[in-house]
Amino acid sequence: MEPDSLLVLLSGVSLLIFVVIALVVLQLILPNRDGEYRPLLNSVFNSGDVDRNFLNDEESLMQLAEEFDYGTLSPEEQRAFLEGEEFLNNNPPNPEHVRGRSYTREDELLIKDCGINAFEFEQEKEILAARYIVEDRTEVNFLNNEALYSTATAVLNHSLPSKNRSPDTIYFEVKIFEFPEDSPNAHFALGLVTKPYPSTFRLPGYNNFSLAYESTGNLKINKPFPTPLQQHRGEQSQFNAQVLPPLSQSDIVGFGYMVSSGTIFITRNGKKIMDVMKGCYLDMFPAIGCFSCNAKFQANFGQMGFVWIEANVRKYGFFSTGDRRLTGQRGLAFLPEYGNSTLQKDKLLGKGDDLPPEYPEHEYDFFGRRVVEGTSAQLQSTKKYEQSEYEDKD
Questions:
Q1: Is the pTM of this model over 0.85?
Q2: Which of 36, 44, 120, 252 fits 137 for a cystine, CB–CB 3.0-4.6 Å?
Q3: Measured between alpha carbons, how far is 215 from 296 in angstroms, rounded to an integer?
Q4: Distance of CA 131 to the CA centre of its chain
């Protein structure tokens, strides 16, 4: 085949692939035959459960592909976007998982018995090829995630415990223990997601429904663009809108959720930065995601003191002794308040006044004979003396 013919053939194939991808994107974004927009968000939740600001409206979705130059993305990034939308269509969110209803009876019994220790990040199913390891329930160590385009997200096993709380706010923090800042494409995102979520190939904030604080300072709310690589094109990158301060090693990011108003807010290194949204009553799961790098994170759900002082004073951890009861208290709320006046008449606790017990003044042996008082050496010498006297009499 002549070189000119081969060049024309390759150009035609490339153009055909681009047209197919463009048609798929337009099919996801443009209206259907009935004149109604295709529900990318799978509008299965009641309007009172999700703030409209948390939803991608049709106009913004149409602008995303143009604004972020979808056609210039790498094939891997395009495939990740399409697979994410396919995952959402095949695995829509459960409309019943709002306002703490994702907890089953078994979950509540487990949390009642184990308390805060019942919360842990889920380990990848393929443990031999896992890109991260969960240590001590709350530490996430990304070990095999340095390959280009490699994306993995660790999600907590239970959602934020929003039911039956006396403090109106739930709060947790994530510390960045290790992060290779010298790597050009190293990227991570900390945030909240709903389940099911494509955690094996998407970061928090990139798919519905989720939000994230990215290492570059971007605030992501259900936005597949800009991609991590678009954000790492240097200082001249027009896609890196730093809404928040960039993150680095040793930073501590906190997420708070006000149950009554559905408000989500963010803190950084002990200072509150901003309220992200209001009116969100979805059951959200803490999530930590990494892109093309190895890093280490530790989450604090209240098992230790928070950097944000207000969370300690007002007891914003996952559980506290002030939580209200629902057919019995759950977790740490089940521990007795020993200073409570209602426990003053408790017989078992009242036995503490009798301790230590009154021991007898003298010590007696097995036969009831009184043991000679003194040190061990004196007792041994006395015993030898009595034995020698007994032998002399014989």
A1: no
A2: 120
A3: 13
A4: 17
Cα separation, 81 vs 230, whole angstroms: 14
For a pLDDT cut of 90, what percent of the chain falls above it? Answer: 49
Nearest to 333 by CA among 164, 215, 199: 164
Q: Answer yes or no: is 375 within a domain.
A: yes
The tokens for 140 are 């996430």
- Per-residue pLDDT of 149-184, as tens digits, reads 999 999 999 999 998 887 889 999 999 999 998 898
Q: Are residues 274 and 160 in the same domain?
A: yes
Contact of 362 with 368, CB cutoff 8 Å: no
Going by C-alpha positions, the residue among 263, 262, 267, 250 that lies closest to residue 310 is 267
* DSSP calls for 154-174: EEBSS----SS-SSSEEEEEE
Per residue in 53-72, pLDDT (tens digit) is 555 555 565 566 667 777 88
Shared-domain flag, residues 314 and 366:
no
Residues 250, 387, single domain; the answer is no
Phi/psi for 288 (5° steps) reads -130, 120
Tell me what pLDDT residue 379 has: 58
**Taking residues 95-122, what's their average pLDDT?**
92
Tell me which residue range forms the domain holding 182: 93-230+240-334
User: Among 284, 319, 334, where does a domain finish?
Assistant: 334
Eight-class DSSP state of 170: E
Which residues, listed in sequence order, are joined to residue 287 by a DSSP beta bridge? 155, 191
Express each pLDDT in 304-322 by its tens digit.
Answer: 999 999 999 999 999 754 4
Contact indicator for 172, 159 with CB cutoff of 8 Å: no
